[in-house]
UniProtKB/TrEMBL annotation:
Source taxon at top rank: Eukaryota
Protein name as catalogued: Uncharacterized protein
Annotated region described as Disordered, given as residue ranges: 99-140
């Protein structure tokens, strides 16, 4: 009957360490939150790069088509179409450069965040930086 005596149950249990259990739980939640944040940033970066790659490919295809049209066209065209095509080509080249520089900035920002994360005693939350707009001004 000694095994059924509930008065001794409190004495037979291991000492409660509530503070350590709460810290362990907090650490687990922090690790999970960091994993989700990393996953979100990684997928956002991958999605943005895929978009930019597709956009750059479309611009490149358009540029090639226009260049072929210019080289096949009559150079004595007097209706001014050559100038319009030149402006389109300049715009597309500027867009390609803007996409390339934006991706380079993103790469540098990501490397900086990785360096900050690897430093001991620093916060893992980086302030959000608004992305620069990808739309260039219309050529004059």
């Amino acid at each position: 009957m000694e095994s059924l005596n509930l008065n001794n149950l409190a004495n037979s249990l291991p000492p409660s360490n509530l503070a350590k259990a709460e810290m362990d739980l907090t650490d687990d939640f922090k690790a999970a939150a960091l994993s989700l944040t990393t996953l979100y940033r990684s997928s956002k970066r991958t999605s943005k790069r895929a978009y930019n790659t597709g956009y750059a490919a479309a611009c490149q295809d358009m540029l090639v088509m226009i260049q072929q049209g210019v080289s096949a066209g009559d150079s004595s065209d007097s209706d001014g179409q050559g100038m319009a095509i030149g402006r389109i080509m300049d715009y597309i080249e500027a867009r390609l450069e803007a996409i390339k520089s934006c991706e380079e900035e993103d790469d540098e920002d990501e490397k900086e965040r990785e360096r900050e994360r690897s430093k001991p005693g620093t916060s893992t939350a980086a302030p959000a930086k608004p992305a620069p707009p990808l739309v260039a001004a219309k050529p004059a």
